Amino acid sequence: MKFLVSVFIAAFSLAAFAAKLDGIAARVDSAVITVGDVMAEIRRNPDISGRMIAADESEMQALYRAALDNLVERRLILKAAAEKKVEIPEWVIDNQLREIVNHSFGGDMNRLHEEMARSKVPMTEYRNTVKEDILVRGMRQQMIEQFVSASPAAMKKEFAAHPEKYRQEAKVSVRVILLKPGKEGDGVPSLETRWAQIGEELAKGEKFSDMAIKYSADSHAKDGGLWKDVNPEEAFRPEIVDAIAKLDVGRVSNMINLDGWGFIVKKESETKAKQMSFVEAYDKIAANVQKAAAKKAYDEWIARLKDTSFIKIYPMPKE
């Protein structure tokens, strides 16, 4: 998994600001987690930070606690790594930093240092966070993921218990020509005139895809108007959905006038919704079983680590 340097920088920047609150969020043995640490964790986690924006007080407390729980678990895992005397070679950290630089700074290490300076984040602190992330990933891999497998019995049980997860949705591939409405006096032919011209060219053997490139104002025009493997109800207005449903594969619709715009649709292919067989769904079933097993194993591992640690959680600050 790649680290995005912007996530680290945002986290540290907010941590520097929130540290002014000088609040303690939790203690894990001798380690202290500050309110600033929690705010930084929120910024590190796009799911939590995105939901925080519109959260009410109750949801905000839940999201704050979720971020704090992440940090507590991180401290527990790092403690376990220390007890096992797990070491990360410096070259591994260097390689991770190079990957970050290549991914986010065009391979220029100086740009990373400049960004750290602007954010008032010491490189030693940033490097340590990179090291800790590598340790956490490595411990999870060592303790959990490599031992998780999907047995045939578990897979059959999952398939029987949750058939709704293994349905193949209806999909169609269509090509669309979208004709813009003309403005009075601009000399653009009417929709009907342009549709008649397109019809004549199609009758002469011209390809629909070429007509889309030539005439369409649709965003997919450069691809020959192709909308590949879409759910029509999610992609188009009801009038277009209805037209697509009535078309046989390979056929072209009449022009549909919607608010002065002309739509012409050709159905390229269609896959009906159906219940997948065990064989068809095999890879998806295996992935779901492994994911569930990994979560169960992780939760049990964290519970064992908590049993051997002192943990105290402090209330979320009111301001």
Quick overview of this protein structure:
The protein is of the alpha+beta class and 319 residues long.
Characterize the structure shown.
The chain has about 325 residues and is an alpha+beta fold. Helix content is about 55%, strand content about 15%. It has 13 helices and 9 strands. The strands form 3 sheets. The chain has a 4-stranded antiparallel β-sheet with strand order 5-4-7-6. A 3-stranded antiparallel β-sheet has the order 2-1-9. Helix 3 packs antiparallel against helix 4 and helix 4 packs across helix 7. The N terminus is likely disordered.
Helix share, percent: 40-55%
Question: Looking at the structure, what is the overall shape?
Answer: elongated
Total domain units: 2
Q: Strand pairing plus helix content: what structural class? A: alpha+beta
CATH superfamily (homologous) name of the largest domain: Porin chaperone SurA, peptide-binding domain
What Rg is obtained from the alpha carbons, in whole angstroms? 28 Å
Q: Alpha-carbon distance between the termini?
A: 35 Å
- Uncertain segments are 1-21
The helix count comes to 13
Main sheet record? 4 strands, antiparallel
Q: Report strand %.
A: 5-15%
| Strand order in space, largest sheet | 5-4-7-6
Helix-strand topology string: HEEHHHHHHHEEHHEHHEEEHE
Q: Provide the residue-averaged pLDDT.
A: 88
Using the coordinates shown, work out and report the CATH topology of the largest domain: Triger factor/SurA peptide-binding fold
Number of strands: 9
The CATH class of the largest domain: Mainly Alpha
CATH architecture of the largest domain: Orthogonal Bundle
